[in-house]
Amino acid sequence: MSLTPPVAGPIADAWLVIPLFNEATVIGEVIAGARETFPHIVCVDDASTDGSGRAAREAGAVVVTHPFNLGQGAALQTGIDYVLRATDAQYVVTFDADGQHRVEDAAAMVERAREEEAAIVFGSRFLDGRTKPGLLRRIILKGAVWITNQQTGLRLSDAHNGLRVIRRDAAEHLDLEQNRMAHATEIVLQLARTRLPWVEHPVLIVYTDYSRAKGQSLMNSINILIDTIVK
After folding, report:
1. Which end of the chain is more exposed for a tag (fewer CB within 10 A), N or C?
2. What is the pTM of this model?
């Protein structure tokens, strides 16, 4: 199995959906790096206060704006709804705004969905040894994965990875109500209920100086575990 597809030009039938909250310093670079492969990108600006929406629009993305901060789950649902209602895209690719996801991994996952007729491709940082999350983060994430697997009946190695490819027929079943970090479990549960074919794909998560400085990765891991338990 190839981890990266051959260079085949833009992927015209997939849209990146990027939840966006106060990432103005990086979102322009993230979008610029993605558009050569994914020309269609929608960012859902979740009431940012730093001009993130303007930066995303200037970089070439479609921007949908929440008037109030609703959380990442709500932003994902808004973005997915936009793609389903406003485009004829065959695939939705959920993608983070902070630079931790790689475009080449997203492209490889779309290619795998086509080749294997998979309706859902879950990215996993634990299928190979490239991602180095650190011991504490690994323990927290593995705990959240175990709980999610018990709740959903799936057997994923990394259920809370935000990089996913979702075919249109699967995306049409999504109706996320958990706006905060618990959406990471809810989206897996709703996709599992479709009984459509799914696979996991190894990806590299890049823990950047920017994300580490924000403390985002570890705090998200802790929030995911708490929300998974109490949802």
Report:
1. N
2. 0.84
